[in-house]
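If you are new to this repository, start here. Below is one unmodified record pulled from the training split, so you can see the exact layout before writing a loader.
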Amino acid sequence: MCEAIDKLASANGLKRSAMVEELLVLALGQQETELASTFLMPRLEGILTGLFDRHLRDLRLVMVHAALESSIASRLTLFKYKEDNGYDVHQLSSLRDQAYKAATRNLGRKGVRDADLQDE
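And here is the target side for that same chain:
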């Protein structure tokens, strides 16, 4: 099939991709719109799903790095607060727990459930 497309492309002075596009336009022009969408839409959906999956996998790595940096920053802030205010370990833990509860309540108001916050 590629050889046939390449022959047509070179005979018409086009690149392969341009020839494929021309052939698709020609073929679709002869089809009913509904028939064309019947075989093209599932293929298009598959291509888009693959692209979104790949993009979201890339975002996962960014999200992991952001969570790690955030965790480090919050720990450093807590230890700095402990040193500046003379807190002991129990007071520091209590402060961290209060901050966690406040953040959880805030997320709850935005529709995040407790089960979504639990480690699996």
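Two things worth knowing about this chain: The mean pLDDT is 78. Helices lie at 2-11, 16-29, 33-85, 89-109, 114-117.
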